[in-house]
Amino acid sequence: MERNRGESRICEWFATVLVAAVFSYLLLEVKAHDGQAMTAEEKSKIRDQILEMFDHAYNSYMTNAYPADELMPLSCRGRVRGLEPNRGDVDDSLGKFSLTLIDTLDTLVQLLNKLEEFESGVKKILSDVRLDNDIVVSVFETNIRVLGGLLGAHVMADVLKQRGERMQWYRDELLYMAKELGYRLLPAFNTTSGLPYPRINLRYGIVNPLSRTGTESDTCTACAGTLILEFAALSRLSGERIFEEQARKAMDVLWEKRQKGSDLVGTVINIHNGDWVRRAGFLVSVTCFGEVENLRFAFTAVPQQLRIKAQLASDNRENSSIYNILFLMTDSGVGAGIDSYYEYLMKAYILLGDKVYLERFNTHYSAIMKYISQPPLLLNVHMHNPTVNVRSWMDSLLAFFPGLQVLRGDLKPAIETHEMLYQVTKQHNFLPEAFTTEFRVHWGQHPLRPEFAESTYFLYKATGDPYYLKVGQSIVEKLNAHARVPCGFAAVQDVRTGTHEDRMDSFFLAEMFKYLYLLFSEKSQLPIDIDDYIFTTEAHLLPVSLSTSQPPCQTNNTDPQALEDDLFSYSCPSAQTLFPNNPTFAKTIRDGYKYLTGVGRAQQASPVRGIELPLHDTGLEPVEFLKSMGISLTPLTELISASQGSASQDSHKGFFKLKLVAEVTQSPEHEEVVPLIVQLISPPFLGQTVLTAGPAKFGLDLTKQEHGVKGRIVKSSPYTACGSIENPVALQGHIALALRGDCMFAVKARRLQEAGAIGVIFIDHREGSSSAETPLFQMVGDGEPTDDISIPLVFLFSKEGAMLTNALQEQNNVDVLLLPKEKQLGKEKPEKLNIKFRLANDGDLAEGEMESTTIQLVLEPTESPTEMNTGTQETCSFPQDEPESGP
Ligand code: DMJ
């Protein structure tokens, strides 16, 4: 629409349209479409309630946790990294820099007008916080939470100072801190690609031998693509361009590396060469019958897993077999791993006035709407084959997306997806971290994430529909009812049980209350003009005036021809434009999704995406397509001639036999598989027979058992353990042997555990497989939580398995030890004690001993080392030269 305008003018105009669009609807008298409109008193009551909740959370942190990074609301003390058990990646947000206070500071002014608390909070930060701790932090989290927090607080400090009310002493100290932090993060960009390292040591950077980081090769797309707002604001406020330049370069790389066919990006990228990282995508059970006709596949989201069903050429089900296939793929979605990259493209345009960001956003957005958006669902797809869904579940982070769609002006899908999310919260109180396309819990945790509140706020602003106030009210009530504890608010460990977790992440204070409070506030009730600011992904507010404060960095233009010239490409249309004179439009859209999860819903089939090969979208031939997904196809002609020596009449083009090439043994690259062993310890083996075994990603972790797990082996009946177990009495207290195949490892494990087995040894069903030829792999679960499986599980290839079953046949009773290879019994070199014997001489023996008829021998150390068989020398293993570990 307005492509010829100057960049800053576009931005200015955009901001004006945005403000007008978002608020114009509020001026209309909108009736309540799903119940009564809220009166001013009701809204004010809820606002007070939110304020009270904020105080409860904030005071709990300040009183019981500060200066620690976060509050542990159940223990009512601070979480100090290193003093609490390591939680893995999630701890990388904690840099011993009073994270929660920094993340919360600007909220105190921007919304709540708590000026005294703000001023004292700033003073605390200036006196207490160090940014040079010897600690490894996430570059992404430190940027959005700490750098964003410092900048947001600086902007507010400046506003208050300008107004002459408070902070007269302030001399940009927070900005200096932000700059110091910016410089501490900069070494992360020292890669050949320009994509930043995911982690950095605040004191030692990356390359320093003391840094304990710098070995990473991958980062997530959002991690590399969510820096531009904070870094550009830092550049423009401090006058130092380097920050914006580096962040922009990272954005440029991601754009360049997008999959050009689909215009989508993947979730994980190699920071050195910019390649998308293929990961274990999903496990699929494939039933292969004889011939497969036309290669017609349906990827069906059945509850626990995806299945590929091949259409049968005939009813001949002989020789059918089930294979578990692990697909290595690059998936693409709008949730975890990617989310804020898209958000920052759109918002970088709004904040910086550079239309290149908007053009890129528009290109990606079209792709998202083409492939990922299946209203009301947003489903991850295979980046290279985007018509293929890769998951049957969604993650809660994607709940921000309807809010972004509002900014884009695309209200209809925003309303649809938001409604779907609301239905999920109605069912489970909160959004579980992951939920299936049938709205069942996939991963039940809820760490008090604010994304759903964020979208609710944006939708209310765009539609003025009081329905969204009711949604907001339900969020408030649920937080009070299910997350509130005497010392703050506690994350929910599992929405199904409502159990709490001892964590209150800083984003809860930084974001949740901000969006909720704004939702119930009139513009006039806020201490600042909220329309002059843009929300960062952590809800820190940066002034849109930055777009004109300095010229943007030099940039390449994207091809304008590539953009769709639609109404929304350069604007942010209002509900008025979209649905003129129709104030009930949002309700009309929502109504279609009212009974998605609950009673009264018509039985819906799982979403199915049928694919008829060849895929026109990719232009790939069927064989290439499946190969790209880890399946190879062998034309029947070849198979039959190989097996029968002649071609069959049935074999013709289009008939293939599925051949397994990628199975669970093809574990993701870089995955470390700790080799285990099954050591036969009962006579006559006495530890000398040691079989190399693979571990499982679930069940008892043998590496943590000092002495392994010992037990007698008993074959399961049925041997596959897929049906109900017929010999529970025999299995009770013993280690079960079960044949691989027919159902998932986790299913077998559960059955055998229930039957009383204390461990399971799975034996490969493929004849002739051995650990000498096939790398070890880790058995994976069935997509459901596997916490209920607590017994140890190991896997033997069939050659090793045969040794065990032979032993059982010969000996009846065979005791084994399951343990990590490095703890193999008797592997330690025996201490050599060289002993020689001689007949006793006179004087060697005590009085009376001489009279004995026994021949007396005397032990004496030998000088010459004579090798003796102690019976504990290193035992043979099968096979002799097994690989150390598999990929
Ligand atoms: C926040 O830190 C930010 O919103 C980020 O972009 C992703 N998620 C968390 C909250 O869920």
Automatic annotation (TrEMBL):
This is alpha-1,2-Mannosidase. GO terms for molecular function: calcium ion binding; mannosyl-oligosaccharide 1,2-alpha-mannosidase activity. The chain crosses the membrane at residues 12-28. It is an enzyme of class 3 (hydrolase). Ca(2+) binds at T537. One of its GO terms (biological process) is endoplasmic reticulum mannose trimming. Gene3D superfamilies: 1.50.10.10, 3.50.30.30. It is found in: Endoplasmic reticulum. It comes from Danionella cerebrum. PANTHER family: ALPHA-1,2-MANNOSIDASE, ER DEGRADATION-ENHANCING ALPHA-MANNOSIDASE-LIKE PROTEIN 2. Keywords: Calcium, Endoplasmic reticulum, Glycoprotein, Glycosidase, Hydrolase, Membrane, Metal-binding, Transmembrane, Transmembrane helix, Unfolded protein response. GO terms for cellular component: endoplasmic reticulum quality control compartment; membrane.
